[in-house]
Amino acid sequence: MTTSPSRRDSHQTDDHRAAGPRAMAEAYTFSARPTGSNQQSAAMDQAYADVVLLSQALSKSKRVTERMTGLLRTFDDRLVRLEKSVVGINRSTTGLSKTQKNVEAALVAIDALLGGHDSLERERAIITKGPRDDTTAYMASMTRLVTSLKQTGSITLNGPFQQTGVNSHESAAQMSSLLETGAKQIVQLFTAQVREASPERGIDLRGQTAETAQFPPIPAARMDSLRQLAAFVQKLPSPANRLDVEMQKAYGEIRGKFMAASLEPVAKQVVDFASSQQPLMTMPIWMDLFFAFGRSEYQLASSVFAPYAASFIFKQVVPPSLALFAETGQSINAIIKKDVSSSVAVAFEVYAALKTREDRFEELIRSKSGRRENELVDLAHAFRGSCLRSLPEFLEETRAWGIKQLTPTESMSAAIATMTVSVINFLRQLSLYQDAAEGFLQTLGDGNWTFGASRPGPTATRSKGQSLLSKYSDDVFYTLLGALDARTKSLRTQRAGVAAIFLLNNLTYVRREIHSSGIDDVLSEQCEDELNKRNRTAKAAYLEIIGPLVGCLMDAAPETGLLKTGLGAVGVGTGGRDRAEVKDRFARFNEALEEIENLHATAKLASTEPELKARLQDETNRMVLPTYKAFFNKHKTGEFTKNPSRYLRVDPDQLQARLNALYQ
């Protein structure tokens, strides 16, 4: 049966409603769509249906959101109620924790009280035996003691002993006493190890300088042990850790004695050499050794102990060496005062050395040790006084030496005089330390360095603008020349030949030393001219000693009274008178030659003057050999005597050899 359109539409509408919103929308759209509408109207209907569907979906989402919000509010309320329950439980737990800690502390205290006696006896057995070779076990025992004391509350680390209760006090006091005993034994072990590494005899520094000396360090294994012991005692609680200071003092005293023992033999050499004028070991060299040794000891102390303790330790190290330093300087100064002429050069050298080392002394010794005393300044002041006194005293001693009576030994010696050497050394020191010497002379005043009797004669004239040092040096030079002249006169009265050789030796030495050093810088030109003139005179006086050899071969002509030399002097006939004269000449020649040889054996030319010897040898040969050779050849047949060997003792070659031997 055919269904009508309206009925068909009604059935479609019911079906769409049953199919859901989208189906209804589609049905509505379809039913509402006019028959034969265009394509644009269909698109609009489709869009409208989509909007309706979206609106329905949003409504459904809103309902779901509201339901979830309600659930979350319910959960929040439940969490608040749960938090209130947890806070109560937490408060109960905190109280229980405190109770637990109190119980544990009480148990620890009870254990300490119950086991303290056993622990104390156990550690006492270890500590009373001493550390011996096993320091690790010993220090572990002491560490357990410290822990026990901390547990009883009797101490805090690095803190003092505290009384905590009547029952525990006695045990804690015993532990503390035992701990201090152990610390003392560690200090004793430390001291023994330091002493073992620091022999009492020191090290041999004789012949050494600051550049060549080696200061042997403490062996590495021993250093590790010393560091470990020092650090352990320092970390102990009071009063045991107070022994750290005792340990530092012991170390400083032992190393100080070791340092002084090493420097003492060198100091003795310095004093001995100052007495004998030997420049093998001088005060400046000793001071440099002292500074180098001190620097080494300071570094060593800094490596054994904490750096902050180095100054305190070094203050214990240096006193013995400083006392030795002051004593050595005072001994040298006493030598200078006792014999100014021989030691005045040493005074200038030591004074200059002290002044130039003031900064090093301040930096290396005083500042690092924190000392107020200044031994170097005190010595410098003392030597300054000696230098000032030495200027006039040296002139007076030089003058007095010239007129001093000769000893038997001096009367037969032509050696370079000790006073001559002293004057040259003194002038050399003046040239080396011109500024200091000029300052001393300004303190004395122009010309105030001479006494009336020692004031040089008119030869020592002054030039305009001449410095005080040059004036004084000229006075010293002319005083020496005057003393040598006086000495030569005394020698001449006993043996003329010795006097001539003595004067020649000394003047030659003075001339050579002045030209080879800086002495001529402080002397005027007048001094050099005077010295050259006196050297020529002394050389001529020496050649007069050789003159008798030639005089024996010379012939006096009665008719003229003139002396003829050379071949003319040997023209002797064969008569009896002539033969006697030939014998006499040979005899006198041989006698004169022996006398000259004996003279040179006693009064030798200075071995330090090879150039002088070479010149004198050449001139002697030229003066003697030609005449003797001619005379010898004339009479070598021996016709003038029945015993030729008695007179013809040497031929020309033998004579030359014997003459040359005088200058060897």
Give the topology, please.
Layout: H1 5-19, H2 21-32, H3 39-127, H4 135-151, H5 166-196, H6 220-235, H7 243-276, H8 283-304, H9 310-317, H10 319-338, H11 340-356, H12 358-369, H13 375-403, H14 408-411, H15 418-432, H16 434-444, H17 468-492, H18 496-516, H19 525-551, E1 555-556, E2 563-564, H20 576-602, H21 610-635, H22 644-647, H23 652-661
Secondary structure tally, helices: 23
Overall mean confidence score, pLDDT? 82
CATH superfamily of the largest domain: Exocyst complex component Exo70
CATH architecture of the largest domain: Up-down Bundle
Q: Give the oligomeric state of the chains in this entry, treating copies of one chain as homo and distinct chains as hetero.
A: single chain
The count of DSSP E runs of length 2 or more, i.e. the number of strands, is: 2
Biggest sheet statistics: 2 strands, antiparallel
Our measurement of the CA-to-CA distance between the termini, rounded to an integer number of angstroms, reads 177 Å
Radius of gyration: 58 Å
| CATH topology assignment of the largest domain | Monooxygenase
Query: Uncertain spans, ≥5 residues at pLDDT below 50?
Result: 1-35, 155-167, 556-573
Instruction: Assign the structural class, choosing from mainly alpha, mainly beta, alpha/beta, alpha+beta, or little secondary structure.
Output: mainly alpha
